[in-house]
Amino acid sequence: MSAFKAAVTKGPLAPVYLFHGSDDFLKEDWVRRLTEAATDPGTRDFNLELLRGADCDAAQLGRALDALPMLADRRLVILRDPSALKKPARERLTKALSKPAGDTVLLLVAPASAKLEKEWMELAASVEFAALEGKDLLKWITVTAEKQVGATITPGAATLLASYGGNDLALLSGELRKLAAFTNGEPIDESAIEAVTGVRPGRTASELLDHVAARRTTEAIALVDEVLAQPKMGGVPLVMALSTQTLGIGWAVAARARGVAASRLEGELFSLLKQSGGAYTGCAWGEAVSRWARSTASWDAGDIDRALAALLAADRALKDTKVSSEEQIVTSLLLAMAPTASGRKAA
Cα 88 to the chain's mean position, in Å? Predict the structure, then answer.
């Protein structure tokens, strides 16, 4: 990533780039930046070609790659979802990767869930856009506020905003613009976050998930009304996050039973999330896997089975004709997921 950023800023650009990874928002941001670096605004209409794998045949791809720049030193060809190419076009692409043109930059943009050819990864300059976590996410919030929104944000406010939006960068970017308008030149602090998003420290969906993972049912129930009232939240998203969390903890419990070392759990869980194609965790992935790994001692296989059955019933109730309110359904769910008397005795 560092080498790629340096090339975009100062050059030289590689003849072929392959963008892949789970964060499509970051990916699109750097598609824009690479386009600006590789083409001149005055001749961009002549030297920028956009293709999609599902709609592109071998002949069309060949024409795009063989065309010469017009009134410029190079062209940029952007091919989205190259894995959707049919066999003849895939063969033409592999040939182009083996002997790339000197006056064309080819950019392959793979969606988060795409399965990529190993040969493409080896022949192209491969740039992975992974979901931002921890300090990287907080840095992104701070830099985006300053450089794209023209505002400053306090560290506490950045942490609170991250707990609200997780690593959904599109959501966070939109909230930062609202916050900048709200503060009108003043620093964005925690009170501004609360005023615009409705989120208060210690009263977020992330805290509720943390209580559930630690089997603190009373504390989790105390947050239900406030969490469900927050923007971008509701019964269905909360049940989705709880389902992902329960499956993650269940996988970790099974891994520990197989003899996987506790020190390896977080890494294994993060790999599992990457393979899921974007499972909804309700918070940043790093925060989620850390919570799941440290909660394994509080759960067993029977607890997981019982919780998943309760989650399925709650999901159906939320999507069915409203007999109970969301608050009642979620509260009943948390009670159904609570440790049993025998579980408490064993603990």
Answer: 33
CA angle 322, 326, 327 (to 5 degrees): 140
| Rounded to 5°, angle at Cα 150 from 144 and 155 | 55
Please report the pLDDT score of residue 321 as a whole number. 63
Q: Is 226 exposed, middle or buried (0-12, 13-18, 19+ CB in 10 A)?
A: middle
Distance CA 304, CA 311 (A): 10
* Closest of 239, 241, 341 to residue 291, by C-alpha: 241
3-class secondary structure, 34: helix
Tell me: do 112 and 173 sit in the same domain: no
DSSP state string for 269-330 = HHHHHHHHTS---SS-HHHHHHHHHHTGGG--HHHHHHHHHHHHHHHHHHHSS-SS-HHHHH
Has residue 205 been placed in a domain? no
DSSP 73: S
Tell me the CA end-to-end span of the chain in Å, nearest whole number. 46
Tens of pLDDT, residues 20-66: 988 899 999 999 999 999 999 999 999 999 999 999 999 999 999 99
Instruction: List the domain range (segments joined by +) for residue 155.
Output: 134-197
What tokens appear for 132 in the block?
């931002």
| DSSP symbol at 55 | G
The number of distinct structural domains making up the chain is 3
Chain centroid to CA 170 = 10
